[in-house]
Specification:
Layout lengths: L9 E9 L3 E10 L3 E9 L2 E8 L10 E7 L8 E2 L7 E2 L6 E7 L2 E10 L2 E15 L2 E10 L7 E3 L3 E3 L4 E3 L2 E2 L12
Antiparallel strand pairs: 1-2, 3-4, 4-5, 5-6, 5-7, 8-9, 9-10, 10-11, 12-15, 13-14
Length: 182
């Protein structure tokens, strides 16, 4: 697992000892970097790290997709693709929202944010090219928050051979939690 650790200015890989209750730090993959929504995937014996970094230093992690590669997962020697980073500079496309394989193809999910609405929906993109020399993806579809009643947002989808996960948010009325004495 690679949890959000941009406030620590690193990318951390954790190992599970007792799913889902107990995790330990396995290794630090990158240091001195504010990265968000980091994902790793192995293709043709090369590890690729897709992550969102704000080059401007204003803590905006939704506009730039950066990709690095390494021959091993547990290393701190990750190199940028030959084409350079960011590979995507677009606040409506860059932010990672999941990754999955299906029928021999890789799909990257990107979050779509609207003004004053974090995680409005997500796109599913087929990864057309991923190599040390470059990256290219093709948008296939948009998933809007219409798959369940009363939801207003969705921004993440991941899957493997046996399980899939999706998030959503809905508006709920707040009830009075504390009673005040008159």
């Amino acid at each position: 697992m690679i949890p959000e650790s941009n406030e620590n200015k690193d990318v951390r890989l954790y190992k599970c000892l007792d799913f889902p209750y107990r995790w330990v730090l396995d290794s630090v993959l990158l240091t001195d970097i504010s990265a968000a929504d980091t994902m790793v995937i192995k293709k043709n014996n090369v590890w690729y790290m897709l992550t969102n970094i704000c080059s401007a230093g204003i803590n905006d992690h939704k506009s730039e997709l950066h990709i690095f590669y390494a021959n091993e997962l547990k290393t701190n020697f990750w190199q940028p693709l030959a084409t350079g980073n960011p590979v995507i500079f677009n606040s409506l496309k860059a932010r990672n929202g999941g990754i999955f394989n299906h029928k021999g193809k890789i799909y990257r999910v990107n979050q779509v944010h609207k003004q004053s609405h974090y995680g409005k929906c997500f796109n599913i993109n087929e990864v057309v090219m991923l190599s040390e020399s470059g990256y290219l993806e093709k948008e296939l579809c948009t998933i809007n928050p219409k798959f369940k009643d009363d939801i207003i947002s969705t921004h993440h989808f991941s899957a493997n051979e046996t399980i899939a996960s999706i998030d959503f948010a809905k508006t709920e009325r707040r009830r009075k939690v504390f009673k005040t004495k008159n």
